[in-house]
Write a structure and sequence with these properties.
It contains 19 helices and nine strands. It is of the alpha/beta class and about 475 residues long. The radius of gyration is 26 Å and the shape is globular. The protein binds NADPH dihydro-nicotinamide-adenine-dinucleotide phosphate and ribulose-5-phosphate. This is 6-phosphogluconate dehydrogenase, decarboxylating.
Length: about 475
């Protein structure tokens, strides 16, 4: 039987393209997937000269690989990785190498390393970036952990990696789960930049009222300036794409509910543990979260209306109103967390009672807690205090003042991140439509992650170029 140099488990977006890339570089490769169609499509897409075979039976796949074996997992992070390892493990031999090329949580990688080491199997995590095209024609790869095992595979990875000035975009990064950790933070930065681009788009669209073709030209031109980057480049291309059926700009038909797979959230969570402030990444994660509250946003848009132009200066009365506005938003956010925690952990919390006992004695006691209590008596299932008629009206009446305070603070260079977070949360929550459709389009462009549309049911993938 033919013996292959390298095997990949999971023939989806990344696995299939990495195998084709390896075959381009003269390696003989085999792939395993649970789905016969995917195994077939791998062979169909290969060129005659390429040495590629697809399998759906783990035994045949494993016995087709040269020993000691080199196998990479490219299956979704979490349980599928453990399931894939579980199915391979009885078939592996001492000194075989298993590389997890997916976006696994770094502590899962540490655990898997320990478990596989007991069986004398080398295991290491290697984050991979570049999406579908990167995998096919040259990704950036971030290995860490077992340095000797990496060394055995280095020539393959260096051959298939992207090159800059002749240097491959892959190098051993450090011990343990360093590879997955670096890729996690890469994705956190990715989230931050995608959110910033979406905001820049929104400022041009809503704030300056530019037509779509002008915004497209601006993004395209920015890519020839100091902003040159993959994400700016693809945004220019995304804005160009017309929907084949309606002839409209496809972006405007994409749902603004942004999906995510976890790496951005983990970046924020671990940054908090390390006391590493990453507020842009935090904001990017929470904007994807807020985007999910579509029904509430549509509802809030009806009552929490914009109050018009703001003052150019501020005074203590305005500051008092701004502080009240921001404080109410802080309570509203905490109450939403309690409601969700109650559902998730089965606490059976009654938020009216929480508001009641917080009215006195505790550090956050305040006159407004009586208003919250009344709001929850009126509507025990109230999803967010901002949706209460009286509370909402009290915020609408004060919004000009917090906007003025933030404006003055920004002009004078005074850090007011909590005031900014309050007004940003309010504005995001009262947005019937957010610019997170840009994020959904970007995710589909680079990673074939698919998107929902506003004019029909289902999930879609576009050929963006
Ligand atoms: N798409 C992207 O842009 C990028 C993805 N990644 C990461 O790479 C990994 C793979 O992503 P991607 O290729 O997009 O995912 P896909 O969902 O496109 O592909 C995963 C494939 O793995 C198969 N699979 C799942 N479990 C097993 C198993 N036990 N044995 C064999 N095959 C299995 C799936 O089959 P089935 O569908 O039938 O379940 C599917 O074909 C993930 O961790 C992802 O986060 C990293 C960088 C970029
Ligand atoms: O790793 C990637 C890109 O570098 C993947 O495309 C990842 O899925 C992106 O994260 P998310 O799906 O949460 O937007």
């Amino acid at each position: 039987m033919k013996q292959f140099d390298f095997g990949i488990v999971g023939l989806g977006v990344m696995g299939k393209n990495l195998l084709l890339n390896m075959a381009d570089h003269g390696f003989s490769v085999a792939g395993l997937d649970l789905d016969q169609e995917k195994a077939n499509s791998l062979e169909k897409e290969a060129e005659a000269a390429q040495d590629i075979k697809g399998f759906i039976a783990a035994e045949k796949f494993i016995s087709s690989l040269k020993s000691p074996r080199a196998i990479m997992l490219l299956v979704p992070a979490g349980k599928p990785v453990d399931a894939a390892i579980g199915s391979l493990l009885p078939l592996l031999d001492k000194d075989d190498i298993v590389v997890d090329g997916g976006n696994s949580y770094f502590l899962d990688t540490e655990r898997r390393f320990t478990e596989l080491a007991k069986k004398n199997i080398h295991f290491f995590g290697m984050g991979i970036s570049g999406g579908e095209k990167g995998a096919r024609f040259g990704p950036s790869m971030m290995p860490g952990g077992d340095a000797q095992a990496y060394e055995r595979l280095r020539s393959i990875f260096e051959a298939i990696a992207a090159k800059v000035d002749g240097e491959p975009c892959v190098t051993y990064l450090g011990k343990g789960a360093a590879g997955n950790y670096v890729k996690m933070v890469h994705n956190g930065i990715e989230y931050g930049i995608m959110q910033l681009i979406a905001e820049a788009y929104d400022i041009m669209k809503q704030g300056l009222g530019y037509p779509d073709d002008k915004i497209q030209e601006i993004f395209e031109s920015w890519n020839s300036t100091e902003l040159q980057s993959f994400l700016v480049e693809i945004t220019g291309l995304i804005l160009k794409k017309k929907d084949e059926e309606t002839g409209q700009q496809l972006l405007t038909l994409i749902s603004d509910q942004a999906r995510s797979k976890g790496t951005g959230k983990w970046t924020s969570q671990d940054a908090m543990d390390l006391q590493a402030p990453v507020p842009i990444i935090d904001m990017a994660v929470l904007m994807r979260d807020i985007s999910k509250y579509k029904e509430e946003r549509v509802e809030a848009a009806k009552t929490l209306t914009w109050a018009g132009e703001v003052e150019t200066d501020t005074n203590t009365e305005m500051l008092k109103n701004a502080l009240y506005f921001a404080m109410i938003n802080a309570y509203a956010q905490g109450m939403v967390q309690l409601r969700l925690a109650s559902e998730a952990y089965g606490y059976g919390l009654n938020l009216e009672e929480v508001a009641k006992i917080w009215r006195g004695g505790c550090i956050i006691r305040a006159a407004c807690l009586e208003d919250f209590r009344k709001a929850f008596i009126k509507a025990p299932e109230l999803p967010n205090l901002l949706l209460d008629k009286e509370i909402g009206a009290s915020l609408v009446a004060r919004q000009k003042d917090i906007r003025a305070v933030v404006k003055v603070a920004v002009e004078k260079g005074i850090p007011v991140p909590a005031f900014m977070a309050a007004i940003s949360y309010f504005d995001a929550y009262r947005s019937e439509r957010l610019s997170t459709n840009v994020i959904q389009a970007q995710r589909d462009f680079f990673g074939a992650h698919q998107f929902e549309r506003i004019d029909r049911e289902g999930v879609f993938h576009a050929q963006w170029e």
